[in-house]
Amino acid sequence: MTDKVLGVILGGGQGSRLSPLTQTRSKPAVPIAGKYRLVDIPISNCLNSGIHRMFVLTQFNSASLNKHIKNTYHFSHFSTAFVDILAAEQTVQNSGWFQGTADAVRQCMHHIVSHEFDYILILSGDQLYQMDFKDMIEKHIEANAEITIATIPVTAKDATDFGILKADDENMITSFIEKPKTGLEDWISDTGEEMQAEGRNFLASMGIYVFNREYLINILNENEDEKDFGKEILPRAITQSRVLSFQYEGYWTDIGNISSFFEANLGLTDEIPKFNMFDSNHAIFTRARMLPPSKISGTTLDKTIIAEGCIIQASKVEHAVLGIRSRIGKDTVITNAYIMGSDRYQTLEEIQEENSKGNSLIGIGDRCFINNAIIDKNCRIGNDVKINGGDHLEDGDFELYAVKDGIVVIKKGAVVPSGTVI
Hints:
This protein is an alpha/beta fold. The protein is built from 10 helices and 27 strands. This is Glucose-1-phosphate adenylyltransferase.
């Protein structure tokens, strides 16, 4: 796979549905599971599949993503492996931003084709899953396909949010519809007994594609007005080319909005999570930080993931993810929350100076109550702060926080004064 396949990871657009987490960073750079970034998921899936050459395409708020990739993915000088950023750039031929997924690949194609490969694997940068791409590529070759689309069985309720496909007895895709609202009964597929028993009768596109090299070059050159794979390129290709459906039945979720992001993170705290971070065959790679172990004093913990370098004195933490360098004060209760942590520790001198001025420290203070919330990185939550998310709160965007689907998101670097109630 190392020589045959090149990976391209799409960094996504502005990521407005994940705002305010994407106000200062691109979507692939959003922290997940306390210590990783979203982009680590597709990169790790590639590395575990023997694909060691990857480009990450991005254009919005790419500084933190660039820094993360530069500090994380180092390979031997004697290896051809790389993970490189390709940011949107103005050229003589093109002076505009990426206009869609296909346009992003088209604009970067002059960089991509300078490498030798037979197949190109195109991935999304905002999905949570563990997948061996070797199986998909082998099926692609066996079927003599020009494109292979990874598909996943979904229920009728979920089908309206995805591109839905129909395939023949040889798994060749015969038709496609984008986010159908009516006539769903016409799109039912034979997804297998196990999937049908769960009511998952529709084949949804996962936004994961394999293209033959020359075929992709040609199809992108044929009609430069087509900007998007899912909406334009693939529907046309299905009528003209051999397009294979590769059915995947494992855990997969699209991190499209705050609600799905919150659920995906808290789902990791389940006794047997659907996404298995402890599977050595599907390791997740990320930046190697030389952090001390976490220190916990007088805290009752239940269904909680704790990353490295935390200092926790809370009275109770339940159903929560605590990110790197999280500091939580005494008598604080945290439930149903993702605390992203911080990028640095404050020195003892800084702490003494802040205390003398009555300022809040980086982290969460004493006697706080936090429920149904995401606390972004480097926040300063004072003492006696109450943050209680839920359906009783209306959606809104405020100076220090936003509310999305009842989830309170404290913005990166926000200073929440002592005694604040949200």
